[in-house]
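Notes from hallway chat w/ T.B., transcribed later so I don't forget. T.B. wanted the structure written out for a chain they're using in a teaching module, and asked if we could keep both sequence and structure tokens in one place. Agreed to drop them here.
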Amino acid sequence: MSKSSGFFNTINFASIYSNTIKASRFLGHKMSKLKIAVQKSGRLHDDSMKLLRDIGISIDNGKDQLKASAKNFPLEVLYLRNGDIPQYLRDGVVDAAIIGKNVLVEKGEDIKSIENLGFSKCKVSVAVPKSMNYTNVKDLEGKQIATSYPNTVCKFLTKNNVNANLHIINGSVEIAPNIGLADAIVDIVSSGSTLFKNNLVEKEVILKSEAVLAVSPQISSENQELLSKIQFRIKSVLKGRNSKYILLNAPNEKLEEIINVLPGMKSPTVLPLAEEGWSSVHSVISKNQFWEIIDELKLKGAQGILVCPIEKMVL
């Protein structure tokens, strides 16, 4: 078969997408673009852009840009302040967003999230000075609480039948007890280092948060189809991140026992080795169960265990 045949032609998806756009314009049809918002800076921004790259979205992200278009997918990214994103979703200015769950709980409970993304994890917590005699949430009764999350805090206090006064602060909440502004704070906690530096200690976890994919209630049916494609890619990447590909050699007399240890997607792949009485077993395991499974495989007689990362996993 010659190299000019269909089996050897290189498919240039970027070129196909570009030609599709040109054809649509020629025919007078304006191609729809999915508008997705991400935080304009910080760790959530970096993790969001990495996810888009991992799902094959190529974006020219110039310095200080407020928006950028993908080269190889009908998608436009808008770089916005995290706290403004819920309103942009509500108004239909953007179709979807990668946003912290904590922001949705505070400012956009009416907005639907359709996928947990597993990064930018943090907590919204109550913290008090180390010197404060704190035993339970009732100790907040009548206290002054500094926070950037008034709606979240009000719901928490109401749930626990506690009355307290709120000081709403945007930024540097942790300094409030040290300057006499508040008795306690409610703020985002990641590693806890900021609390430690300010002689504060975490006492109550109000909310566990991570990045989520949220969708506008006003998204069009055409853009919903585009978002479904994006979500499918995201699921494949996240499944790959949370799994490991494992290859091992197993004595045939122990093969059934070893296969029973491996969860797999359906069933492991088993191939005979050149050496008689041995087989090669291939499967996928969860990274959260990795060491426990490896220990059990060794006890069952598995040898030559090789573990590889998985870039994407399409189910």
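Follow-up for T.B.: The chain has three domains: 12-120+211-240, 123-209, 242-309. Might be a good example for the class.
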